[in-house]
Amino acid sequence: MTTWILAQQTMEEKIAILRQMGSRFEDPDPHLWWKIPSVLCLFVAAILLVWMLYTVQRRRQEREVAPQPRRLFLRAMREIGLSASDVWHLWRLAGRTRIHHPTAMLISARYFDQVVAQDCCDQKGQLVHAARRRRLMAIRPAIFGPEAPAP
After folding, report:
1. Given this model, what pLDDT does residue 46 score?
2. Is it the case that residue 65 has pLDDT exceeding 70?
3. 73: which residues sit within 8 A by CB, 6+ positions away?
4. What does the alpha-carbon distance between residue 3 and residue 45 come to, in Å, rounded to a whole number?
5. Would you say the C-alpha torsion 119, 122, 127, 132 has a positive or negative sign?
């Protein structure tokens, strides 16, 4: 459209029109001091929003991946149907023998017997805590069933 207007004008009018068009870029913008900081603020806000979303997502993933041995142990005990005192004795057994995942004691009757022996006997194999061993062995049939072979 501008070329059509320029084609029908004289040379002086063409120069005046071009100068008028160029003056738009020569005159300072009075709102420039507000435009630049607002654009920078929007840019910083966008970066902060992306960072916050990334942090939230990373925390969700870390929470999902984190092992929860106590929760798994308590859930397994609830499924088996043990009393609160039996659960407490098994939890203490895992703590004394330093088992990081107490549910591992429930893998097999043989491993359970090894953990009980490690807890109730000294290094020479002498029985030190007979009452504790009787209590833990009374829990054994509830976990593995009455047909589990005795140690």
Report:
1. 96
2. no
3. 90, 91, 94, 101, 102, 103
4. 43
5. negative
With a CB cutoff of 8 Å and minimum separation 6, the contacts of 111 are: 104, 105
> Residue 70, Cβ neighbours under 10 Å: how many?
13
Q: Is the backbone of residue 129 left (phi > 0), alpha (psi -120 to 50) or beta? A: beta
Taking the C-alpha atoms of residue 120 and residue 112, their distance in angstroms, rounded to an integer, is 12
Is pLDDT larger for residue 30 or for residue 135?
A: 135
Per-residue pLDDT band for 36 (boundaries 50, 70, 90) equals: confident
- Per the listing, tokens 């020569």 go with 26
Q: Could you tell me the CA-to-CA distances from 4 to 7, 18, 19, 24, 126 in Å, in that order?
A: 5, 13, 17, 21, 110
- What is the distance between the alpha carbons of residues 87 and 77, in angstroms, rounded to a whole number? 7
